[in-house]
Amino acid sequence: MRITILPGDGVGPEVTREAVKVLTEIAIILDLEIEFDEQLIGGAAIRATGSPLPEETRAACVASDAVLLGAVGSPEFDELLPEQRPEIGLLQLRQLLGGFANLRPAKAFPALKGSSPLRDEVFEGTDLLIVRELLGGLYFGQPRGIDETEAFNTMRYSVSEIERVARIAFESARGRKGKITSVDKANVLETSRLWRQVVTRVARDYPGVELEHMFVDACAMHLVTNPKRFDVILTENLFGDILSDEAAVLTGSLGMLGSATIGGQVDLYEPVHGSAPDIAGKNIANPLGAIASAAMLLRHTAENATAADAVEKAIERVLGDGYRTADIASPGAEITSTSEIGDLVCVHAVEFANTRYAFHAV
Prior knowledge:
Layout: E1 2-8, H1 12-30, E2 35-38, H2 42-49, H3 55-62, E3 66-71, H4 86-97, E4 101-107, H5 120-123, E5 127-133, E6 145-146, E7 151-152, H6 159-174, E8 179-184, H7 190-203, E9 210-215, H8 216-225, E10 232-235, H9 237-246, E11 258-262, E12 267-271, H10 288-300, H11 305-320, H12 338-361
Parallel strand pairs: 1-2, 1-3, 3-12, 5-10, 8-9, 8-10
Antiparallel strand pairs: 4-5, 4-11, 6-7, 11-12
């Protein structure tokens, strides 16, 4: 399996390094053949080549089985036009790879209930998946423009774009609790009315899955007051971006959230958090979102549940043993560095993988 690594900017290289470390150890234990190819993206690519997504990076990604991304963005490029900034490299990459469904799980780890501002009875037991449409809506709709007096974007969706991501969500729900909450703003937006119509029609092909519709503002409220009511949340690009970031409160930090983008010719995996330039290079960033993304890579692209389970259980073990990076630590608690967290996950992932491997061998 060939994986293109795009460390990117800020803390991206630090958290990606730990994810690669875990993948390497798991590959050795389970005899997986993985080849890594590191390339440039974002601000790092602009500095080196003048482009946020150079041709060499494009070619490497298209030739891969999966892409693992760190983060993009740097304050030094804030004065550039939007189409010239590091972030455009990520949007271009998503278009290039064709992944239209972004999977963002949010699970409340029992060991982290003190890290969330939510009451324990609200926090505990939360386990949901946000399925975000990734190639349509305001981020990609045309026409768009800006001048000295006004700016405008176009929200646009087609039936086929909605249907294909809806089917990903319904298939995901089949393997979970069997419930879909489709989120829109159908009381004011024509695109949302079409969204609701198409999702309702797709639901007829999945009689075992319960469907409910919910306005995005109501969903935002319920996410922090009664998150256990959700199983799979299906929504469009902008709403999904906002709601999945809000869901970080359910895990204690954005640094805990991984994601997978599937449906295209090459799958893309990345932590939900940004480049966090203020803490870059300090070895204090939380690598668990990147490591969780690597676990999703093992599950979805490598189709190796044993490897994915080992990494996910290792994350839980490390948290359960009380190790914390700064973003999820209680006041006055001892802080564990980025690289130390990565080392600990490696140790436990190897332990769990060895146990499962021996069990199956017997």
